[in-house]
Amino acid sequence: MLLIMDSGTAILFNYFDLKSNMSLKETEEVNKVLHFLEQIGIVVIEKELGQTFLPGLDLGPNCIFIDYNTLIYPGDILHEAGHLAVTASVERKLIGTDEISVDWPTQGEEMAAILWSFAASKYLNLPLDFVFHPDGYKNDADWLISNFNSENYIGLPILEWMGLCLGNERSAKEGKPAFPVMLKWMRD
């Protein structure tokens, strides 16, 4: 949301209201995200959704469902993709079904999805507040951005254990780039 002051009047605008009535899925940011997801093998299905935890988004087996008419924060697409990406492939096909564990995602997987979405934002050259918006992350978006900008990558050992990236120490030993560069985007 943007706050614009005009003659002492505060007006709130949704980020994409300023895109001159452009369809949400036609914006440069969303196109980047959708193209990236296609490249890494995450299927995106456009469909009408009822009420969901994140407006306009839901997860299914190996896919993300998007309802552009109710989507408020398109950066949430990357966070939801992170959930798919950090879930073991054998469990990924159970997401959105009654067969997935009631504990999914675990707290560790939640942290990994947050950090994964940070890496994806950097890779796509998207502003961090595109994903880490003020109405998400239990009001800790600014704190997360501050930590990530300080290279305090909360949850990095989990992503490293999953085989998705390397921390500084292993990166130096193996002569490969360190996080936020990813070795791969999808967990085996």
What does this entry show, briefly?
The protein is an alpha+beta fold and 188 residues long.
Walkthrough of the structure:
With 188 residues, this protein is α+β, with helices and mostly antiparallel strands. It is globular. It has a 3-stranded mixed sheet, covered by helices on one side. It has helices spanning 28-40, 76-86, 89-92, 107-123, 128-131, 141-149, 156-161, 168-174, and strands at 2-6, 9-13, 43-46, 57-60, 63-66. It has 8 helices and 5 strands, in the order E-E-H-E-E-E-H-H-H-H-H-H-H. Mean pLDDT is 89; it is low at 1-21. 38% of the residues lie in helices and 12% in strands.
- Average the pLDDT over all residues and give the rounded result: 89
Which strands sit side by side, in order, in the main sheet? 3-5-4
Distance between the termini: 37 Å
**Helicity, in percent?**
25-40%
Strand percentage lies at: 5-15%
Number of helices: 8
The beta-strand count equals 5
Q: What does the largest sheet look like?
A: 3 strands, mixed
Q: In one word, what is the shape?
A: globular
Succession of helices and strands: EEHEEEHHHHHHH
SS-based structural class? alpha+beta
Low-confidence stretches: 1-21
